[in-house]
Write a structure and sequence with these properties.
Elements: E1 3-9, E2 13-20, E3 25-32, E4 44-45, H1 47-65, E5 72-79, E6 85-87, E7 97-98, H2 106-116, H3 119-126, H4 135-145, H5 147-152, E8 155-157, H6 159-168, E9 172-174, H7 175-179, E10 184-185, E11 190-191, H8 193-198, E12 208-210, E13 215-218, H9 221-227, E14 234-236, E15 239-240, H10 241-249, E16 256-261, E17 265-271, E18 283-286, E19 293-299, H11 303-313, H12 315-324, H13 328-336, E20 347-349, E21 367-369, H14 377-400, E22 408-413, H15 419-429, E23 433-436, H16 443-455, H17 461-468, E24 471-475, H18 479-507
Parallel strand pairs: 1-5, 5-15, 9-12, 16-22, 22-23
Antiparallel strand pairs: 1-2, 2-3, 4-7, 6-8, 10-11, 13-14, 16-17, 17-19, 18-19, 20-21, 23-24
Helix pairs in contact: 1-6, 2-4, 10-16, 11-12, 11-14, 12-13, 13-14, 14-15, 15-18
């Protein structure tokens, strides 16, 4: 039996899994770590922390699996997107990595739009607008604020690609993480030389780009010795976490959407043909399937809104959970289901940290609308759950404007666990909601699939997904609920515009 490793270098933890030729996970290990907050709104990380966690989880997974080093046929990588790791000519990290959720670069993003002639013009270059999370602003920030560090940069990589370097000695990224820099011509599949020249960024610092299942390098003798693996083991391109999860849930076929309800919310669909990103509210990247794309919308506080409610108002449920062993979130969902569809006219917008899609608006605010004397805590919980799904429906409806018919939604993350919440999702979205095998493994399983394709286990990414991912649950819309939610959703859509001026004023207080 041969195996592959899937490694996911996340924001706060590294997860490694070992998968055999039949797609079964035989071992896994996770190690958590902290990131650095040097100032409010800034987030950084020491890349060596990721490497230490990678070493630790690989060793633990190998020990659990009790397999020989030579039985590992390939390694796949996934990780947090956009995070900038600057390297000098000796391949030493120049400064802490600037992470994807760092908010210091708004000024630089505005300057990019001004230099190119507006957001629509930037979409012409790279199919996306310059969001603060993207790598483009981080490079320009170092250039402007830390010129001495900018001069030292010989190459930059993204988070998972630093692990690639430590494994193989090669400097490269894959097409999805290249797309997430906002410096990559997503349509032509190459760095956008015109944009790079216009912004006066050194062209020499850009890494080579490979396809996600393509072999990008081989394990060095040093890395093999540290990890207990075989020298020369191939390492494939891999993919950024969202695109790897699309592979790992089988959202590689047009018409199948992936919905992730984690801290943020992601709605993603594969595209076999390139199409223009409508207004730049979505993110259009090259994906794990060579020659194809994924378009997705990111809402900033999906599960984050539910966590906020639990932590702020769910003390009773937390106490019950500690005494009973039941999850506090499940207790809250069960309470919400005692309230009828539409929460008796109570609506919630989950814009508690601003919003990205469908409104790129840091001043957007979360609100409860329609409160009256009959609403108790159960109604507020239901409104939160419904509002989260309404926000993801907004993203899916934007995607549908590209002419992509949605026939099925595959859910993962916290929103996949409770069948009652899955029913709310199916009713609001008006389509079948399913869970598939291994959907809870995040990007690591997608990385393993990409490694298996690179190792020759499976002929293509799509074939692997079709073969390995089996539907575990199906939830179909209840016609009566679907009809009610369509009316509630129409009202929900009016709330943002009705309160925009108010929220702008609040942001100035």
């Amino acid at each position: 039996m041969a195996y592959v490793l899937g490694i996911d270098v996340g924001t706060s933890a590294c997860k490694t899994i070992i998968v055999n030729e039949t797609g079964e996970i035989v071992a896994k290990a996770t190690k958590e770590y902290d990131f650095i907050v040097p100032r409010p709104g800034w987030t950084e990380s020491d890349p060596e922390v990721w490497w230490d966690a990678t070493v630790d989880t690989i060793k633990k997974a190998l020990e659990k699996a009790a397999i020989k080093p030579e039985e590992i046929a390939a390694i796949g990588l996934s990780g947090q997107m956009h995070t900038l790791v600057p390297l000098d000519k000796n391949r030493k990290v120049i400064r802490n990595a600037i992470m994807w959720n760092d908010n210091r670069v708004g000024k630089q993003c505005d300057e990019v739009h001004n230099k190119v002639g507006g957001e629509d013009k930037l979409i012409d270059y790279v199919a996306n607008t310059a969001l603060p999370g993207y790598t483009i602003g981080k490079i320009l920030w170092i250039k402007e604020v830390e010129p001495e560090n900018y001069e030292k940069i010989d190459k930059f990589v993204i988070a998972k690609d630093y692990i690639r370097y430590k494994l193989t000695g090669k400097i490269a990224t894959d097409v999805s993480d290249a797309s997430g820099t906002c410096l990559y011509d997503v349509e032509k599949n190459k760095w956008s030389d015109d944009l790079i020249n216009l912004l006066e960024i050194k062209k020499s610092i850009f890494p080579d780009v490979v396809e996600s299942p393509e072999i990008s390098g081989h394990l060095t003798s040093e890395a093999a010795s540290i990890l207990g693996l075989k020298e020369g083991t191939p390492v494939v391109g891999g993919a950024g976490d969202v695109l790897a999860q699309a592979v790992g849930t089988g959202a590689t076929e047009e018409g199948i959407a992936m919905l992730i309800i984690g801290t943020a919310g992601i709605a993603s669909v594969a595209l076999s043909k390139f199409g223009r990103n409508p207004g730049g509210s979505l993110q259009l990247f090259r994906g794990g399937v060579p020659g194809e794309w994924n378009i997705f919308g990111c809402t900033l506080a999906a599960g984050g809104s539910f966590k906020w409610f639990r932590d702020s108002f769910g003390l009773e449920e937390k106490i019950i959970a500690n005494l009973s062993g039941e999850d506090a979130y499940n207790i809250l969902v069960n309470e919400a289901m005692q309230v009828e569809v539409g929460a008796n006219g109570l609506l919630f917008t989950p814009y508690i940290v601003g919003e990205r899609c469908p409104y790129t608006d840091p001043n957007a605010r979360g609100v409860f609308v329609g409160i009256n004397v009959m609403h108790d805590k159960r109604a507020f919980v239901r409104a939160v759950l419904e509002g989260i799904v309404f926000s993801l429906k907004d993203a899916l409806k934007l995607i549908e404007t590209l002419g992509v018919p949605l026939t099925q939604v595959r859910v993962s993350g916290g929103g996949a666990i409770n069948p009652k919440w899955r029913q709310i999702q199916a009713d609001i979205l008006g389509t079948e909601v399913v869970t598939v095998s291994y959907s809870g493994e995040g990007g690591s399983y997608g990385a393993a699939i990409l490694a298996g394709v690179g190792a020759g286990f499976w002929p293509s990414v799509k074939e692997a997904a079709r073969k390995l991912l089996k539907i575990e649950t199906r939830t179909v819309p209840i016609a009566e609920n679907k009809s009610k939610y369509e009316k509630v959703y129409d009202i929900y859509r009016e709330i943002y515009y009705a309160l925009k001026k108010v929220n702008d004023k609040i942001s100035e207080l």
